[in-house]
Amino acid sequence: MVIVAALLLATAPEPPAPRVAAESQASAMVRILPGAQIRFSEMEQSAPERFRNTHIRAADGSPEPARLVEFQ
Predict the structure, then answer these.
(1) How far apart are the first and last CA of the chain?
(2) b/e string for 32-52 if b means 16 or more Cβ within 10 A?
(3) Which of 56, 44, 54, 25 lies closest to 71 in space, CA to CA?
(4) What is the DSSP letter of 13?
(5) Calpha distance 41→46 (Å, rounded)
(6) Cβ contact 51:44 at 8 Å
(7) Could you read off the pLDDT of 13-66 as tens digits, one per residue?
(8) Where are the beta strands (DSSP E) in 1-72?
């Protein structure tokens, strides 16, 4: 009897894995250094691939257009 029970347990299918969901939204911090001059118009002319149009969500959940820029 014990052998039959062990065989049944060994061949039983595994339960499905639980679904995983995000617990919080990502956030970013920006530090602006005093004295650092940023000229977006010059950056857009010299490196337009750094700019991207997208939509972000406002505090009330409505979508708003945004223009993102990557710089170092």
Answers:
(1) 70
(2) eeeeeeeeeeeeeeeeeeeee
(3) 44
(4) P
(5) 9
(6) yes
(7) 667 777 777 677 777 777 766 776 667 777 778 888 888 888 888 888 899 888
(8) 51-57, 63-69
Structure tokens at 10: 């060994």
The pTM (predicted TM-score) of the whole model is 0.37
Q: Please report, for the chain, the start and end positions of each structural domain, with discontinuous segments joined by +.
A: 36-72
CA distance 48 to 68: 11
41 close to 27: Cβ distance less than 8 angstroms: no
Long-range contacts of 68-72 (CB under 8 A, 24+ apart): 69/40, 69/43, 71/38, 71/43
| Separation CA 39–CA 54 (nearest Å) | 21
Tokens linked to 49: 């691939």
